[in-house]
Amino acid sequence: MIAALLVLALAPLHAFTAPRAARAATQLFAAPPIDGLADRLLAAKVASGKTFDDIAAELGFTNTYTTQLLLGQAQLKPDTRPKLEKAVPKIKKEDLDAMMVAPFRSWDDEILKEPNVYRTYEAITHYGNAIKLLINEKFGDGIMSAIDFYMTVGGTVGKAGEKRVVITFNGKFLPFIEQAVDMNTAASPEIDE
């Protein structure tokens, strides 16, 4: 997620494609990664002269989700297609068509070598225990969804006048449940021996 925001057009995008072994396996379930798609989408974005925030405002999405769309890591929905065509007119029809298929969402471990990405990963892992305990204390036994989820990247100015990065995660709380037999609507069949 964060990787998509922080590396953007500055690094080669081969780091965002699925490993070759996974490509064949995913063809049955999702669109296989399309060579060069992210490069072409980002080139069209650059040609538009707009920032990710500009495009996000036109689409009505968060800047993070918009960036994921332009990295081929989120599916373009039919209602959004005309808005994206207007916002970024240099995107080719065949690339828009490719964006309409459920993508193979992936990342390459090599991306963790990128300092911006690694520092974000480090912050999450360093504060992981505290985040878990605070979520449990405030909401109960459960997790924050990364599916019913919003993220934005913005900024503020610190007390000393320095630029500061603000990353907001907003995910639905999903409680763990007791697995009561009478609540199981898809119980496994009994096998008679």
From TrEMBL:
Transmembrane segments: none annotated. GO terms for molecular function: cyanate hydratase activity; DNA binding. Keywords: Lyase. It comes from the Eukaryota. InterPro entries: Cyanase, Cyanate_lyase_C, Cyanate_lyase_C_sf, Lambda_DNA-bd_dom_sf. SUPFAM superfamilies: Cyanase C-terminal domain (SSF55234), lambda repressor-like DNA-binding domains (SSF47413). Pfam families: Cyanate_lyase. Catalyzes the reaction of cyanate with bicarbonate to produce ammonia and carbon dioxide. PANTHER family: CYANATE HYDRATASE (PTHR34186). This is Uncharacterized protein CYN1. It comes from Aureococcus anophagefferens (Harmful bloom alga). The gene is CYN1.
